[in-house]
Specification:
Elements (H helix, E strand, L loop, with lengths): L1 H11 L9 H17 L3 H16 L3 H32 L17 E5 H20 L5 E7 L8 E4 L1 H22 L9 E7 L3 E8 L6 H4 L29 H11 L3 E7 L3 E9 L14 H8 L22
Parallel strand pairs: 2-4
Antiparallel strand pairs: 1-3, 4-5, 5-7, 6-7
Helix pairs in contact: 1-2, 2-4, 4-8, 5-6, 6-8
The structure holds adenosine-5'-diphosphate and magnesium ion.
Length: 324
């Protein structure tokens, strides 16, 4: 909380100041960079907070639901704020104009983001991690389809780092599931990726044959801190873990939803999982989606949870009031 108070104060310093003053511009950019760095560790810090809360007060379904609702909105606004902070530093920090790697990018936005390149890049990096943990990794099978014909490029207006984040998480999950299931056979079915550019959507499907997840558990995978992997050490000197914080799916879904897309998991338990990222193909539709705090949001935390309106087989209707 003190980080947020400090950053708010830092920003207020610039209220009513002369925007044309060159020195001031530099000071403002410096302040923006400082704020961004101050908040680098918000996600692991909040995660630790949630763990400590649960250890101290225990958990009940209503509190868990409220934490989930809060974190989804909190992290969504964090994605937005960091996008702005980044955009400002890239455009006014003086480095972007001589960035040879991405000459066409406008700050963090790529007006012709090549989805295939981002997918391949994320695959290679996930594969390196996987090799390190399992001494081996599944191959990639990539398929593309463009509704406008095969000669058109698979490009959209997007923030490549957001897309990278999502596919990287999906690859790590697909690889872990595949390696865990086929550990003994020494033969690993490939991870199959389909990229489809349609009139409205750009869809990326990552399919694995890692044994899948039963329908009953699918929603749970998107809750913060849920993971079936052992919890990695928070020690930063250690190698990046392949899994274990349980933040991969929920945060990736936020990135997808941030520009009006979505991320869904379809599983065939006993076989494998399809994870699908939906992105708006038209930049005019990729509008920022932000939470607002109003009466409806407030109600969310204060709904009276009465008896369930669906029957539970061979049980009385659930009395949710006891969980409060
Ligand atoms: P983490 O990878 O850190 O555990 P995630 O949010 O990425 O966190 O995933 C949560 C859990 O969902 C995983 O621990 C795993 O049990 C399950 N899961 C995710 N993707 C797959 C998949 N492709 N196949 C099987 N299980 C999966
Ligand atoms: Mg993961």
């Amino acid at each position: 909380q003190s980080w947020y108070m400090q950053s708010f104060q830092d920003i207020l310093e610039f209220k009513d100041r002369d925007v044309d003053d060159e020195m001031l511009k530099q000071d403002f950019t410096d302040a923006v960079i400082k704020i961004r760095n101050r908040h680098n560790d918000v996600v692991p810090t909040m995660a630790q907070g949630v763990v400590e809360y649960k250890e101290t007060y225990g958990t009940d379904p209503i509190t868990s639901q409220n934490i989930q609702y809060f974190l989804d909105r909190f992290y969504m606004s964090r994605i937005s704020i960091r996008m702005l902070l980044n955009q400002h530093t890239l455009l006014f920090g003086g480095k972007i104009r001589d960035n040879p790697a991405h000459p066409k990018q406008i700050g963090s936005i790529d007006p012709s983001c090549c989805v295939t390149d981002v997918v391949k890049d994320a695959y290679e990096n996930a594969r390196n991690l996987c090799d390190r943990y399992y001494m081996n990794s599944p191959e990639l099978m990539l398929e593309e389809f463009n509704v406008k014909g095969p000669d058109n490029s698979m490009a959209v207006v997007y923030v490549p780092s957001h897309l990278y984040h999502m596919v990287f998480e999906l690859f790590k999950n697909a690889m872990r599931a595949t390696m865990e299931l086929h550990e003994d056979s020494m033969e690993y079915p490939p991870v199959h990726v389909q990229i489809v550019l349609g009139h409205e959507d750009l869809t990326v499907k990552v399919s694995d044959r890692g044994g899948g997840v039963p329908l009953r558990k699918i929603d749970r995978l998107f809750t913060y801190t849920y993971s079936t992997a052992p919890r990695p050490q928070m020690d930063t000197s250690r190698a990046t873990p392949l899994a274990g914080f349980g933040y991969g799916l929920p945060i990736s879904r936020l990135y997808a939803r941030y520009f009006q897309g979505d991320l869904k998991l379809y599983s065939m338990e006993g076989y494998g999982t399809d994870a699908v990222i939906y992105i708006r193909a038209l930049s005019t539709e990729s509008i920022e989606r932000l939470p607002v705090y109003n009466k409806s949001a407030w109600k969310h935390y204060n709904t009276i949870h009465e008896a369930d309106d669906w029957c539970v087989p061979s049980k009385e209707p659930k009395d949710m009031t006891t969980f409060r």
